[in-house]
Design goal:
Elements: E1 14-18, E2 25-26, E3 29-30, H1 34-48, E4 52-56, H2 74-84, E5 89-91, H3 97-104, E6 111-114, H4 132-140, E7 144-147, H5 158-162, E8 169-171, H6 173-187, E9 193-197, H7 206-212, E10 218-221, H8 226-232, H9 247-256, E11 261-262, E12 266-269, E13 274-276, E14 286-289, H10 291-301, E15 306-310, H11 323-334, E16 338-341, H12 345-352, E17 361-362, H13 366-375, H14 379-382
Parallel strand pairs: 1-4, 1-7, 4-6, 5-6, 7-8, 9-10, 9-15, 10-11, 15-16, 16-17
Antiparallel strand pairs: 2-3, 12-13, 12-14
Length: 387
């Protein structure tokens, strides 16, 4: 059991909270502030308990100097101030004497947001490579470290695993909720237990497949990743995307677990018609599971007690190819099946199709949830102090 923010006396303490404020933006305008809202409970708790709050987060990918222009956290500071009805002090520096002085001048209840941690990745990837000097500097700014950035807990970055090496540490309310929800579902002994995997890449989900296949009763594979498995079975999949380097893995899984793995039998192709996989032409590309597959998957889900769903069934962003994902969501909702939805594209599809409040839990972290489901371990959690 890890320490939480509730285990510390915060009064007058400089509390560094690592949040996940990595919101999508266009021309420095926030498109979706879900992650900001998810961080509010922990921040409010800290200021209510008279802490001096220092917020850290990354935003986007910083691979070259120009990337900084479109990935500043300043618009997030503005939005945070609106939600908290409070001025947010903003540091455009990630490391400087000026920043150190700003921290020393904080009063109880003040909030300071530091610029994008990944700005430290130019030129030497000091954030992403968990540079010890950087970790020590950030740690020197605070008295306590709280990790509430669940979506980055699988990344060994300075702001995630470096700082808690040098400070008393705990987790925030968001991370605590995520772990409790996932553990509760995994620890349940109810069956049938069904895993539904979709999305584009097999690559990201190999370890997850290997882990779930031994725990679940059935593994339903949809989305573009199903084509690697169908190709491994010898089907003509046309020009649909596959991971050539993972065909051998797919064959091995199908040979070992043919009784568990369920694959699509038809798809909606580019011309918006539904084709059986047996009838694919060389130019066909499947963009969504077809009506026969939907019925097949619904049959397999009938009576399920637990479901882990990670990845959409098709190109849900295009309404013409969203039916498969929508129908599976609707079936799970209608039958009140205890469903854990992974983050990333899974959460995006849930939000876009209007199922935000329909499931047991919709995770805020894509990669983090997949990693945790593999072996219940995340580097950003493991480094936190035990109670």
């Amino acid at each position: 059991m890890k320490k939480t923010i509730k285990d510390f006396d915060l009064v007058g303490k400089k509390v560094i909270i690592r949040c996940d404020l990595n919101v999508p933006m266009t021309n420095n305008i926030i498109d979706d502030d879900t992650r900001i809202k998810a961080s509010l409970r922990t921040i409010k708790y800290a200021i209510k308990n008279n802490a001096k709050v220092i917020l850290l987060s990354h935003l986007g990918k910083i691979k070259k100097e120009e990337d900084k222009k479109s990935n500043s956290l300043y618009p997030v500071a503005v939005r945070l101030s609106e939600y908290l009805n409070k001025n947010i002090i903003f540091s455009f520096d990630t490391r400087s004497d000026k920043l150190t002085e700003m921290v020393s001048n904080l009063k109880e209840g003040d909030i300071l947001l530091i610029e994008n941690t990944r700005f430290e990745d130019i030129p030497q990837k000091k954030e992403s490579n968990c540079d010890d000097e950087l970790s020590k500097y950030w740690a020197s700014l605070g008295d306590i470290f709280i990790n509430d950035a669940y979506g980055t807990c699988h990344r060994a970055h300075a702001s995630v695993v470096g700082i808690p090496k040098y400070l008393p540490s705990g987790i925030g309310f968001l991370v605590e909720k995520e772990l409790q929800k996932i553990d509760n579902l995994l620890d349940s002994k109810t069956h049938p237990f069904i895993a539904v995997l979709g999305g584009k890449k097999v690559d990201d989900k190999i370890t997850l497949i290997e882990s779930l296949i031994n725990k679940c009763d059935k593994l339903l594979i949809g989305g573009a990743m199903s084509f690697t498995f169908l190709k491994a079975k010898g089907y003509n999949i046309g020009k649909s995307i596959i991971s050539k380097e993972h065909l051998t893995f797919a064959k091995e899984m199908l040979n070992k677990h043919s009784d568990k793995i369920v694959l699509p039998i038809d798809f909606v192709v580019e011309s918006y018609i539904v084709k059986d996989i047996n009838n694919f032409d060389n130019d066909d590309i499947g963009y969504d599971i077809g009506t026969k597959t939907i019925k097949l998957f619904e049959k397999e889900l009938n009576g399920a007690k637990r479901v882990i769903l990670n990845g959409p069934m098709g190109l849900f962003e295009d309404k013409k190819f969203s039916n498969g994902t929508n129908r599976i969501f609707k079936y799970l909702e209608k039958n009140k099946i205890k469903t854990l939805v992974g983050g990333g594209d899974s959460a995006s599809s849930v939000n876009k199709l209007g199922y935000e409040d329909s499931f047991y839990h919709v995770s805020t972290g894509g990669g983090a949830t997949m990693k945790y489901l593999e072996n219940r371990s995340l580097v950003g959690i493991d480094v936190i102090e035990d109670k």
